[in-house]
TrEMBL record:
Listed InterPro entries: UPF0234-like_C (IPR035571), UPF0234_N (IPR035570), YajQ-like_sf (IPR036183), YajQ/Smlt4090-like (IPR007551)
Name of protein: Nucleotide-binding protein K678_01676
Domain of life: Bacteria
UniProt source species: Magnetospirillum fulvum MGU-K5
SUPFAM superfamilies for this protein: YajQ-like
């Protein structure tokens, strides 16, 4: 039976490259001269340190621009609350979202069932396996899932005939 998997994976090496680009730009830009602004990643958490809220907002924009340049969808960032740090600076944690959680999987399965396409969807941990009798039905399902609004980027892998 033809099948494919729906996953949500993020390339951490590309995120590191984007963060290096942001760090270079912070060092070169005139409006960041003398500012104590930094960006660093540990596991799946990015820590942003800035002098004040306007600089933090600028750093958010820089992150989005550099993520897009490196072909990483900015939707993978989940911004946590801003907290005060030492010396009148602000700190923010940004989590990198990976995998398909239960709520998103249920939303995708419901969309597939409502479309009346003759395929089966099975939730397998943090991915979704779609199987069907015809390859055309699977391609139709991929087109349908691309239209579904989700909070993270989806990839369609392991397409088998």
């Amino acid at each position: 039976m033809p099948s494919f998997d729906v996953v949500s994976k993020t390339d951490l090496a590309e995120i590191d490259n984007a963060l290096a680009g942001v760090t270079r730009e912070i060092a070169q830009r005139f409006d960041f001269k003398g500012a104590k602004c930094s960006v660093e990643r540990k596991d799946k958490t990015i820590t942003v340190l800035a002098d004040d809220d306007p600089k933090l907002k600028q750093m958010h924009e820089l992150l989005k621009v550099y993520f897009t340049r490196r072909n990483v969808d900015p939707k993978v960032m989940e911004f946590k609350t801003v907290e005060k740090a030492s010396g009148n600076t602000v700190r923010q944690q940004i989590d990198i979202k990976e995998g398909i959680d239960k709520d998103l999987a249920k939303l995708l399965v419901k969309a597939i069932k409502d479309s009346k396409i003759k395929v089966q969807a099975a939730i397998q941990g943090e991915e979704l396996r779609i199987t069907g009798k015809k390859r055309d039905e699977l391609q139709e399902t991929i087109a349908l899932l691309r239209k579904v609004e989700s909070d993270r980027p989806l990839q369609y892998v392991n397409f088998r005939d």
